[in-house]
Design goal:
single chain; 6 helices; 4-stranded antiparallel β-sheet; alpha+beta; globular
Length: 165
């Protein structure tokens, strides 16, 4: 089962972030490999992540942002539909959120089958970083929905709740 993750890591090894103050730190797979592998090929995911990284780098290169660390959280579902959420500390201005999300959603999504694929790109702006204890993204919309559920929710199900069809 480690074939998917190994293929993804090899494919991502050549990616360099596009902006001077923007840097991709790593990619966090938010679903088990056993869920992701049958839904999407590792090379297709790596190519998509590279395109997202390039798009984000261009957005962050156009304006000056304060030092921050965060996640670009992305979900793709069948039909090449994509959604994105941001989780930055400190939070970015709301207008920046909308612009960045629109740019990420404009990147052509790969074809997935059988359900959503969810991952996050951990990034740094102007040398900023997230607190050491925040290894996973917590977009506000996700937290609100998880609190409403009152019990743990699998990330694919959570995405479906915050991203209606």
């Amino acid at each position: 089962m480690r074939v998917f993750l190994s293929g993804l890591l090899i494919s991502l090894a050549h990616i360099a972030s596009a902006g001077t103050s923007y840097a991709m730190q790593n990619v966090v797979l938010l679903q088990p490999e056993s869920v992701m592998q049958p839904r999407l090929e590792a090379k297709a995911l790596a190519a998509y992540i590279a395109a997202l990284d390039l798009a984000a780098g261009k957005v962050f290169a156009t304006e000056k942002y304060p030092a921050a660390g965060g996640f670009l959280v992305v979900a793709v579902r069948p039909g090449r539909q994509s959604a994105a959420w941001l989780d930055f500390r400190p939070a970015l201005p709301a207008t920046a959120d909308k612009n960045i999300i629109a740019r990420l959603r404009a990147v052509p999504a790969p074809q997935v089958k059988g359900g959503p694929v969810v991952f996050a790109i951990r990034v740094s702006l102007d040398g900023g970083s997230l607190p050491q204890d925040q290894m996973m993204p917590r977009p506000a919309a996700w937290s609100e929905q998880a609190n409403r559920a009152g019990q743990p929710v699998e990330v694919g199900d959570l995405v479906e709740r915050v991203w209606p069809k």
